[in-house]
Design goal:
heterodimer, A: alpha+beta, Arc Repressor Mutant, subunit A, 4 domains, four-stranded mixed beta sheet, two-stranded antiparallel sheet, globular, B: five-stranded parallel beta sheet
């Protein structure tokens, strides 16, 4: 951020900002809070002594515009979510299968094995795409946020010591695309220690082509389990043929794109022997072009934050663990809308009666 | 005429509510109001009526005319508040509220704070400064503007959370 941008956002003059920077003058608390808001950081961050842990974000492809800002918003959301967990005493530890090995050993076969392990350990069943997001958010302690950025084909993840595991998906993408991104980013979270850290230190941020390809293989195997796809395929065949409509039917069942289904059928050798990868690419283009004819799954725009985030904020407000203004800031609503949430006296002590243990 | 309340700190929720009830100017005639810089310049600048329509207001004129006192808080004062609660805990507050509490805690003057935030009263209970908290309901009653108020502005609200803060203190010591 330039000095002029900081001035515009904080209403603090450039000369004062320079004096703060050079240690000639100390800001007042209101000025420091304005600076913290402009940089999307907490006041504690600016007043902390010693080394501050740097959060690292892994992008599939960095956004072309406002990358730094998008990353700052993402990390701030992670921090806010973490704060809400602490304030409500409801921290959900990250509970994900751990991948081991070296970057070189994580090949296609390993990705397939890992996908099966994840499906089994997380009880995702035969249609993982239908439940993956909820399970990651509610059971595994992964924080998943949705923001809009360009290019749409990218997403990000982080595994922070402070905030735990988190992902950033593109809100502008259709749901089945987000599902694939979710599975792809999950691979990065599962293999974070394999690719990104050595002895607790982050060593490499950017993912190489090989890692990205393996992540795609993992996502395909995770969302489209072989046996379930074979069964769905068998049920759709008529006279040894399958139309584009049927491919879309299978895609809807698994909540993935028709293109992903087509590639999975190809990799499972369910297409004719003379169909080449080039043929698949050409058919995939036609399928994509016709997707709006067969289905309309573009409806549900995702919320910016998980439902649990919002629920924790309400609990924190009602228990007197956060202020109305913070609540409004965290949920991006007006202060007055926030005030309406505390207009009624809470019914303390109401609990659901349980059977004796 | 002597004012009913001297050294009265208000949080942004209370200021907004007073404007919404059209009581702000009348209350200033009877109370000596002090606002933190962030509340006066950033947090309290509009209210929404029952139809959701936004009405802007500007406190700078009140400050310029001396009808209210706006104060700045130093990082030293903030450090004193941090000494009691730790930096992470203070993130729970609105910025303006944090300034008001730092001002109250570090001042030798007997400020009282009127808030609609449970966490403010919990802090007062924790610091055994219950007498420095007041609800908007109590202020309006004592200045002749008494009326039924929503839960977060009532005396019972203040008392409930002040007690909770005091209980937290007992548990922590």
């Amino acid at each position: 951020m330039t000095l002029a941008q900081v001035e515009e956002r904080t209403k603090i003059g450039k000369s004062s900002l320079s004096e703060f920077e050079n240690g000639k003058r100390e800001p007042s608390l209101s000025q420091l809070q304005a600076l913290a808001a402009a940089y999307r950081r907490s006041v504690a961050f600016f007043l902390a002594e010693g080394d501050i842990p740097q959060e690292t974000v892994l992008w599939r492809e960095k956004p072309v515009a406002r990358c730094e800002e998008t990353e700052a918003i993402f990390l701030r959301l992670c921090e806010q979510y973490h704060n809400l967990e602490v304030w409500t005493d409801e921290e959900l530890p990250v509970c994900l299968p751990v991948a081991s090995g070296s970057p070189e050993s994580l090949n296609y076969m390993q990705a397939e094995t890992l996908a099966k392990r994840v499906r089994d350990e997380l009880s995702l069943g035969d249609r993982p795409g239908l439940s993956l997001l909820s399970v990651l958010e509610e059971v595994c302690g992964v924080k998943v946020f949705h923001l809009e950025f360009e290019p749409t084909g990218t997403a990000a993840s982080t595994r922070s010591e402070t905030y735990g595991a988190a992902m950033l998906l593109n809100a502008g993408n259709v749901r089945w695309r987000r599902n694939f991104d979710l599975a792809h980013e999950l691979f990065h979270l599962l293999t974070w220690s394999v690719f990104r850290t050595r002895g607790g230190e982050t060593t490499s941020l950017a993912a190489g082509d090989q890692e990205e390809t393996v992540a795609n293989v993992f996502a395909s195997h995770l969302l489209l389990p072989a046996e379930a796809v074979r069964s769905a395929f068998a049920a759709k065949i008529r006279d040894g043929k399958m139309g584009y409509g049927e491919i879309h039917d299978i895609a809807r069942q698994f909540d993935v794109s028709a293109e992903a289904v087509l590639w999975r059928l190809y990799n499972l050798r369910l297409l004719a022997d003379n169909v080449s990868a080039e043929n698949v690419r050409a058919i995939a283009q036609q399928l994509t072009a016709m997707s709006s004819v067969y289905e309309e799954r573009r409806d549900n725009r995702p919320p910016k934050w998980p439902q649990r985030y919002q629920a924790l904020a309400v609990k924190a407000l009602h228990s007197g663990s956060m202020s109305i203004g913070r609540f409004a800031e965290y949920l991006e609503i007006t202060r007055q809308a926030a005030m309406k949430c505390v207009q009624q006296e809470p019914t303390d002590g109401q609990e659901v009666p349980l059977a004796p243990a | 005429m002597a004012k009913k309340f001297r050294l009265l700190l208000l949080d942004a929720n209370v200021v907004i509510n007073l404007f919404q009830m059209d009581l702000w100017d009348r209350l200033l005639e009877r109370c000596d109001v002090h606002l933190s810089r962030t509340i006066a310049s950033t947090e309290a600048h509009f209210f929404e009526d029952d139809q959701g329509e936004r009405h802007d207001f500007d406190l700078s004129g009140y400050e310029a005319s001396g009808a209210i006192t706006v104060f700045d808080v130093s990082l030293g004062q903030n450090a004193e508040l941090t000494r009691h609660f730790g930096p992470a805990y203070l993130e729970r507050f609105d910025p303006g509220e944090r300034e008001a509490l730092a001002h109250l805690v570090t001042s030798s003057e007997p400020y009282i704070i009127c808030s609609a935030d449970s966490i403010v009263f919990k802090v007062l209970g924790f610091l055994t400064r219950a007498e420095q908290g007041i609800s908007l309901e109590e202020i309006l009653q004592q200045t002749g503007f008494g009326r039924p108020m929503p839960w977060q502005f009532r005396r019972a609200f203040r008392e409930k959370y002040t007690r909770e803060g005091f209980r937290d203190r007992l548990r922590n010591t």
